[in-house]
């Protein structure tokens, strides 16, 4: 879609200065404040309320990249309503929205924040600001506006009617990224399910406004953000057809989960402890799995690079086998439809014996990430699983940030998946926190039963081992079923408890 381009100097040139009508207000930093003229000069807070965030536009370096992006990608303006928290929080949230938009393949032209006690029920941003947003859209030649939040269908529709370009919300954006990144059949089905749920709730709202799906440029990947996956054709079908598709997906997913459940049951039967690597998206979960096991999982400086969990076997120094699973990352306000659709994948974490919670120590707000991750964990029933906080990217984090995190999380491991710093100590911490086999035994195992000794190695914990003339004299902790199998080799008087 081509939009009328206003004759303006490029990006951030003098038109900014024209509109900067803030006189009394002294900004605390050098952020570019831009009071948008709404004819009402009374309220200072309101005058500065739609604010441009500096450094927002996606930087394109090389000319072929520019052309490539022009063809395929959307040119977007980001808008957020800042209701609570500090200015820094609002800006961090905006930077995250920008990363999400770029991950989806957009070129970000501008970011605007409005301070408001709550979003406007009709238009998200104040209705007086909508015209000003329209001006920015025209000035930048944007074809899409992305709002930071989950908007009601009516809000999206009202905004589109007035701004005349596609308007999507953060939820649709995240769904779109998931749709682009899903690789396995299961992942694809999960994403489609989430998208259909999202669409279903908005069917009526979008009924008369299907152009939003058809509009915009249609690139190789489909209809652009919010348009990939179940798009216009499904929207045009009735609720009943969507419902039947949802039912089909659910049953397909149940079947796929069956396979996973079989594997899980197998591991449970063999009492193999499982560790799930969880954390905020881009925290370095896959990098850590690779570092710990050499798994070769895809690592990308992109949000939601991992959607399919990867499980790898690992061993403690004394030979006990356990599994490590890399999982899908979380984000603030992870859309509920996604959490629900990914339930079977996320269950992996809820059923784990230990959660390795990876935190990006170089992020401006690691505590915010931790809070967001714990919220999702509790949502999926994993709040009770023991958690080990791992502060990653120690090589990139500032020493002050690390000191602060060390104080706040005294038990945390501090590592760098990139340099390997702290990894061996993390490994031993993980080992020490694996569940211990319950039964302590003393057994004399004849040398021809090396298989049993081997099994104690893999699933139990050796306390002492002595080679005698009659066989290996072993004191160990094992699981009840293995203890049962060892019954006839047990030495009468139990060893004194040592652990
Ligand atoms: N500087 C630094 N960068 C790291 C470190 N660990 C990971 N990264 C980088 O962080 C980015 C994300 O890493 P991933 O391992 O893909 O992160 P993830 O948590 O699996 O991300 P998602 O699967 O997208 O949720 C990549 O660019 C990594 O190279 C580290 O210790 N130090
Ligand atoms: Mg990953």
UniProtKB/TrEMBL annotation:
<feature type="domain" description="Hflx-type G">
    <location>
        <begin position="273"/>
        <end position="438"/>
    </location>
</feature>
<feature type="region of interest" description="Disordered">
    <location>
        <begin position="1"/>
        <end position="21"/>
    </location>
</feature>
<dbReference type="InterPro" id="IPR027417">
    <property type="entry name" value="P-loop_NTPase"/>
</dbReference>
<keyword id="KW-0460">Magnesium</keyword>
<comment type="function">
    <text>GTPase that associates with the 50S ribosomal subunit and may have a role during protein synthesis or ribosome biogenesis.</text>
</comment>
<comment type="subunit">
    <text>Monomer. Associates with the 50S ribosomal subunit.</text>
</comment>
<dbReference type="InterPro" id="IPR032305">
    <property type="entry name" value="GTP-bd_M"/>
</dbReference>
<comment type="similarity">
    <text>Belongs to the TRAFAC class OBG-HflX-like GTPase superfamily. HflX GTPase family.</text>
</comment>
<dbReference type="Pfam" id="PF01926">
    <property type="entry name" value="MMR_HSR1"/>
</dbReference>
<dbReference type="InterPro" id="IPR042108">
    <property type="entry name" value="GTPase_HflX_N_sf"/>
</dbReference>
<protein>
    <recommendedName>
        <fullName>GTPase HflX</fullName>
    </recommendedName>
</protein>
<keyword id="KW-0963">Cytoplasm</keyword>
<keyword id="KW-0342">GTP-binding</keyword>
<dbReference type="InterPro" id="IPR030394">
    <property type="entry name" value="G_HFLX_dom"/>
</dbReference>
<keyword id="KW-0547">Nucleotide-binding</keyword>
<dbReference type="InterPro" id="IPR006073">
    <property type="entry name" value="GTP-bd"/>
</dbReference>
<dbReference type="Pfam" id="PF16360">
    <property type="entry name" value="GTP-bdg_M"/>
</dbReference>
<keyword id="KW-0479">Metal-binding</keyword>
<dbReference type="InterPro" id="IPR025121">
    <property type="entry name" value="GTPase_HflX_N"/>
</dbReference>
<dbReference type="InterPro" id="IPR016496">
    <property type="entry name" value="GTPase_HflX"/>
</dbReference>
<dbReference type="Pfam" id="PF13167">
    <property type="entry name" value="GTP-bdg_N"/>
</dbReference>
């Amino acid at each position: 879609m081509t939009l009328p381009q206003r004759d303006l100097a490029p990006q951030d040139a003098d038109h900014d200065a024209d509109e900067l009508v803030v006189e009394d207000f002294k900004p605390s930093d050098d952020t570019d404040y831009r009071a948008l003229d709404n004819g009402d000069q009374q309220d200072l807070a309101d005058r500065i309320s739609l604010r441009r965030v500096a450094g927002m536009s996606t930087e394109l370096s090389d000319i072929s990249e520019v052309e490539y992006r022009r063809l395929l990608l959307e040119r977007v303006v980001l808008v957020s309503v800042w209701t609570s928290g500090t200015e820094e929080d609002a800006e961090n949230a905006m930077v995250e929205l920008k990363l999400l938009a770029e991950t989806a393949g957009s070129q970000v032209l501008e970011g605007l924040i409005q301070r408001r006690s709550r979003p406007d029920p009709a238009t998200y941003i104040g209705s007086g600001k909508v015209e000003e947003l329209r001006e920015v859209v025209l000035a930048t030649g944007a074809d899409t506006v992305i709002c930071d939040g989950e908007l009601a269908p009516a809000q999206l529709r009202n905004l589109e009617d007035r701004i005349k370009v596609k308007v999507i919300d953060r939820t649709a954006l995240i769904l779109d990224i998931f749709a682009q990144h899903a690789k396995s059949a299961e992942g694809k089905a999960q994403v489609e399910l989430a998208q259909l749920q999202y669409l279903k709730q908005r069917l009526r709202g979008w009924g008369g406004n299907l152009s939003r799906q058809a509009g915009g440029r249609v690139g190789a990947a489909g209809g652009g953000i919010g348009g990939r996956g179940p798009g216009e054709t499904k929207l045009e079908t009735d609720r009943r057809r969507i419902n039947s598709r949802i039912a089909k997906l659910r049953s397909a997913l149940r079947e796929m989960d069956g396979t996973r459940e079989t594997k899980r049951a197998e591991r449970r039967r063999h009492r193999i402890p499982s560790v799930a690597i969880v954390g905020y998206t881009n925290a370095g979960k896959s990098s850590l799995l690779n570092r710990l096991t050499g798994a070769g999982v895809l690592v990308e400086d992109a949000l939601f690079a991992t959607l399919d969990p990867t499980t790898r076997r690992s061993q403690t120094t004394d030979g006990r086998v356990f599994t490590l699973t890399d999982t899908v990352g979380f984000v603030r306000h992870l859309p509920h439809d996604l959490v629900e659709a990914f339930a079977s994948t996320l269950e992996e974490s809820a059923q784990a014996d230990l959660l390795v919670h990876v935190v990006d120590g170089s992020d401006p707000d690691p505590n915010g990430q931790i809070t967001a991750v714990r919220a999702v964990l509790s949502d999926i029933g994993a709040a009770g699983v023991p958690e080990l906080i791992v502060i990653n990217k120690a090589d990139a984090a500032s020493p002050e940030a690390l000191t602060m995190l060390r104080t706040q999380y005294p038990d945390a491991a501090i590592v760098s998946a990139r340099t390997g710093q702290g990894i061996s100590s993390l490994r031993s911490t993980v080992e020490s926190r694996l569940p211990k086999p319950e039964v302590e035994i003393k057994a004399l195992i004849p040398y021809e039963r090396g298989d049993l000794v081997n099994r104690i190695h893999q699933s139990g914990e050796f306390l002492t081992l002595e080679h005698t003339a009659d066989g290996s004299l072993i004191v160990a902790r094992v699981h009840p079923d293995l203890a049962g199998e060892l019954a006839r080799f047990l030495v009468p008087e139990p060893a004194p408890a040592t652990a």
